[in-house]
Amino acid sequence: MVIPYSLTQVLLVPLISAPVVYLIGRQMGKNTGWVSALPLLYTLLLIGNVAVDIRDGESYSESYRWAPGAGLNFGMLVDGLSVWVLLTVNILCLMISIYSVRYMEHRFHEEEHETGVHTPNSAYASYYALYLLYAVGMMGTVLATNLIQFYLFYELMLVPSWALINNYGYC
Q: Is 69 part of a structural domain of the chain?
């Protein structure tokens, strides 16, 4: 039995968690990654529940009225193929979030050594908040049922990924 609104929760939980992670991260600093992993772990459980339910070649969808005048609905669909892509994206995002706890600590330590400037907790906070937005964009592109939705989620993935590379990538 699928938990009601599972696909909606897969997108909304990390989306709502992003500003929460940012606010918590300003206090926690380097351990913010563990907090950002929690919504991804929850969404993994939801996707796993949906995957078990559709294992017999079925599909699961949710649809909401978006622009009725234009005939558009905000739909999310998972079938036998997309569930594996969605699981892969979610598992990778979860693993990267956990891995980046130590990695970003090392990265910021190197940056402090090079520049002599202490890295504030807000650097960790913004990294993990942007990362959650990136994860939402990735999962939304897999769940999208129309081209407009796909474009919006693709852009939601691109903007945080640009900011992550620009602000936290190596030169």
A: yes
